[in-house]
Amino acid sequence: MTVDAAGSFIVDTGIIIQGPPIGTNTTGQEAQGPHCITGGGKPTDGAGGQHAGHDRGGRPLHRRGPRRVLRLHQHPQLAGRGGLRAELAANRKPYHSDEELEGRKLDRTLTYGLAGLFVVAIGLPLYWLSEPGRQEGAEEDFGRKFVDRGAELFATTEEGGFNCAFCHGGMNAEGGVADYTITDANGQFVAEVEWQAPALNTVRLRYDREEVRYVITYGRPFSPMAAWGLEGGGPLNDQQIQNLIDYIESIQITPAESQEQVAEELADMRELEDEDGRKVYPPSVSDGELLFNLGYESGFAGGAYACGRCHTIGWSYGEKTADGSGGLGPSLRNGVSINQFPGAFQGPVAQADFVCSGSEEGQPYGRQSQGTGQMPGFCQTPEVVSNPLETGEVGVEDEEPSDPDTVGGMLTKEQVEAIVVYERQL
Ligand code: HEC
Ligand code: HEC
């Protein structure tokens, strides 16, 4: 063996190196020989009795001309005893016979393949067919959970909720009153009042989800309605407000039911008498004026249907000033409507359209105004656009706005037109 200039070992395999004669005891243990003796004294199953050349003690290997040792590796169990064992490489091991391979084995493999094909050909389409149903089920389930959680939040403080039900007229939110202390600009006591809290079982007929979210989050300043969202300084996070809206959604009545209640209340108001037995609203009082003040005396629906609760100072606590004197909404007196929606014919049409659908945040209306979304829509239910990415809403389906000419909303279109006639006289 030599080393060349590049540092490679060159082994001349032609040279025969003669070791000590067979049988010489070179290790002080056993005699070397054609049958290698392992530590246990058993012959290894080496290749045909030939010496496998396994010296780890540095002795030169015996070589008797060219021969092949297929694979030589240490057998783990013999390792401790210094034994080695040669095995056939895996790819040279004899396998099943042709008869076996082409008979039972082939059949079995084909059967497995067929079974697999069934799973793919029948199982997958079946799964695919049931998938929409499964997803719907999951969404419904989510929706129900959200509504349930919303209900817990909506409940009275006594029941562990945030008391919405207490002011808004129970779990069905049919309208109620709230004790409230009115203060002046310096925080000085002015009066202790009972403030009408609007029914919320129609709130989605007049507001879209975002508008409801806004009121709950920021509240109504100068009223008993506090800000409930974190952004408004309240205790509820976005998810909780979402759950509340889901709950409120679940208690909504239909436009038809709403219009029916309005008709009954109108009839009741017509019957209303003062202490002297005189009609409070004689026939000379228009339906428009009645609707503007719907529920003022009776507290019907917590004033939810009335224009006065936002457009007349003192309306919500029984001390109303001149109709349309202003409040959360602007004053409607002294020809404001005519100025905002001009034209003897066009004006009322445009104004009725506005009152029907309400204002939308950022959208222009009237002559030169911009909506905040706080003016409700009274004869058209708002469209629903589900927006799960931004709001995390689950189970909310898109809905078209209702048609004011046929369906209406909280009120019918004729009722809104009657109110508009009254407004334009203020
Ligand atoms: C202390 C009584 C009180 C509590 C508690 C209360 N609200 Fe209100 N809420 C009111 C009053 C009063 C108004 C009407 C304010 C006004 O006159 O503008 C109102 C208005 C609203 C409105 C706007 C409805 C509309 O048509 O103007 C929504 C929505 C609403 N509340 C939801 C809730 C929810 C949800 C809760 C519970 C987290 C809640 N409120 C708790 C008294 C209350
Ligand atoms: C919940 C409070 C609220 C109620 C109830 C309400 N409005 Fe309004 N209204 C507003 C607000 C707020 C505005 C101002 C526009 C805005 O902020 O988007 C407004 C604006 C208006 C305007 C335009 C006035 C102008 O000069 O800009 C008219 C007309 C009007 N409302 C009519 C009505 C009629 C009619 C009703 C009853 C059928 C009604 N409103 C009920 C809050 C209300």
Detailed description of the structure:
The chain has a domain of 260 residues. 36% of the residues lie in helices and 7% in strands. Strands 1-2 form a two-stranded antiparallel sheet. Strands 3-4 form a two-stranded antiparallel ribbon. It is mainly alpha-helical and 426 residues long. About 6% of the residues have low confidence. The structure holds heme C (2 copies). One heme C binds next to helix 3, strand 6 and helix 5.
Encode the helix/strand succession as letters.
Answer: EEEHEHHEEHHHHHHHHEEHH
Which structural class fits the helix and strand makeup? mainly alpha
Shape: elongated
The total count of strands amounts to: 8
| Intertermini distance | 120 Å
Low-confidence stretches: 36-55, 69-75
Tally of DSSP helical segments:
13
* Estimated helix fraction: 25-40%
Characterize the largest beta sheet: strand count, sense, and whether it forms a barrel: 2 strands, antiparallel
Q: Any idea what the radius of gyration is?
A: 46 Å
Strand order across the largest sheet: 1-2
**Residue-averaged pLDDT:** 85
Please state roughly what percent of the residues sit in beta strands, choosing from under 5%, 5-15%, 15-25%, 25-35%, 35-45% or over 45%.
5-15%
* Unique bound compounds: heme C
